[in-house]
Design goal:
Structural class: alpha/beta
Strand content: 25-35%
Number of helices: 8
Distance between the termini: 26 Å
Number of domains: 2
CATH architecture of the largest domain: 3-Layer(aba) Sandwich
Largest sheet: 7 strands, mixed
Radius of gyration: 18 Å
Order of helices and strands: HHHEHEHEEHEHEEEEHEE
Shape: globular
CATH superfamily of the largest domain: Vaccinia Virus protein VP39
Number of strands: 11
Helix content: 25-40%
CATH topology of the largest domain: Rossmann fold
Length: about 240
């Protein structure tokens, strides 16, 4: 996993996704003990957990992301318990009732070895009967099979400034990776350029990883409404039990 400090500079400007927040808050409030978020970033979900009275901890590999989170927490009047740690190797002297990895954070690990290492570490830090919840996208087989570039562009306004985001994504079929080269312009001038790489994982493949990591029971949903996964192209929402 590479540094995401550059991405942190405009994360809160460009990421407006909110569909998963009620789901994770609901699951966090169900927990009978502390909750840990891996890849908490600038607190998009983590701060909502705190606001709703959840005993939440968080880790991230971007110091700037965590700094931005702490600034927002101070304005909200809440005390964050967040740490600069790697989701593959983090250590706590406590176990958690719930560990979450929202919004594709798991996909930033680009090798099977790292992914399984993370899952084993998660299981080690869960209480007996504890849960792991994470979500990521269901790979688009038609798009992957065509091996085509994907172009995406969108605009928005923030505090009177006009922003333009442009992404060009390329697919590595052998290593199951998508690399997005992102350009952001502010009022017509270059604001930032970053490159992001995510892997993609198929449902059966992830089931095998869960089993290899010691999980024996899990549920797969096709979205944040708890409906079973049936339709290809849905959001993959996993709940695995220790």
């Amino acid at each position: 996993m590479s540094s995401y400090d550059d991405y942190a500079k405009h994360y809160d400007l460009s990421v407006k996704y909110t569909e998963d927040i009620p789901f994770y808050v609901k699951e966090g409030k169900k927990a009978k003990g502390p909750v840990l978020e891996l890849g908490c970033g600038t607190g998009r979900i983590y701060l909502e957990l705190l606001k709703n009275g959840v005993d939440a901890y968080g880790i991230d590999l971007s110091g700037l992301m965590l700094s931005n989170l702490r600034k927002k927490a101070k304005k909200m009047g809440v005390e964050p318990k967040v740490y600069f740690k790697d989701m593959r190797t983090f250590k706590f002297n406590k176990k958690f009732d719930l560990i979450i990895i929202p919004f594709r954070a798991f996909l930033h690990m680009e090798t099977r070895e790292d992914q399984v290492k993370c899952l084993k570490n998660v299981r080690k830090h869960l209480k007996k009967g504890g849960r792991l919840i994470l979500n990521f996208f269901d790979p688009d087989l038609k798009r992957v099979a065509k091996e085509k570039h994907r172009w995406k562009s969108r605009t928005w306004k923030y505090k009177g400034d006009k922003f333009l985001l442009q992404d060009i994504s390329t697919f590595d079929l052998v290593n199951q990776k998508i690399t997005a080269r992102r350009t952001i312009k502010k009022n017509g001038k270059l604001f930032d350029k970053v490159s992001l790489t995510l892997c993609y994982i198929f449902p059966r493949e992830f089931m095998n990883m869960l089993e290899l990591s010691g999980f024996r029971k899990w549920k797969l949903y096709g979205g944040f409404d708890y409906k079973p996964y049936k339709k290809h192209g849905s959001e993959l929402v996993w709940i695995a039990y220790k």
